[in-house]
Amino acid sequence: MPDLPKADLVRRFVAALIDGVIAAILSSVIPFIGYLLGAAYTLTKEAIVFELLKNDNFKNKSIGKKLMNLEVILEEGEGSIGWMVSIRRNIPLAIGTVIMVIPVIGWLAGAIVGSILGIIEVVLVLTQPDGRRLGDKIGHTRVIDSASVITVTQQEE
Hints:
The protein is mostly helical and about 160 residues long. It is built from eight helices and two strands. It has helices at about 10-25, 35-45, 50-55, 65, 85-100, 105-125, 135-140, 145-155; strands at about 70-75, 140-145.
């Protein structure tokens, strides 16, 4: 993985908040099906906008990350965050929402599981030197400041 500095934590938090609001809006559209829409956005957020629009400005970025000038890179450093990588890295964030679809106990169980995984994710982002959360480890990715990629590329030239 390229030797890049840890992404700015405030901007990373704001990006996560923006993406969380988008997922929450989608989740509230239609009961039960909305939860699946919110989970689908959460799982695919680094790939879906780029794949739908084919706009390079959204390559490896969710809407929140684009607005906060952050992006996701692969451990190898080069390449795109496609559907499967986005899904793998975001499973810890979406699993609580998916569980909420289960009748009777789903909402409570999903809230508990989602909260526990969310706390683990935040602790890892804050304590890991490279800011990698559980989802980053599963997806072999890392969040960086977009400007870091430009700086490293310019230094290599």
